[in-house]
Amino acid sequence: xxxxxxxxxxxxxxxxxxxxxxxxxxxAGPLLLAGLCCLVHAVLPFAFERTGSRIISGLHTRMVTNRxxxxxxxxxxxxxxxxxxxx
Length: 87
Known about the structure:
Blueprint: H1 2-12, H2 17-43, H3 51-78, H4 80-86
Helix pairs in contact: 2-3
């Protein structure tokens, strides 16, 4: 039961617990940097005018791209009959 709490979401996105931890951590660093840039920008409006939003936009693109790849892998594994219903 406890194990399910740690593995249910990672498996729903096609990752193991360890892979999901790595992916989440790879987003955490840039998000922290974006947050710091936004804090500095709040005090010094001329600094980091687009840095925070550029980082977040890049992370969003990366997340959506990986989601599409994972969905495509699941479609290939599940077979063509399910693809008909998803179109």
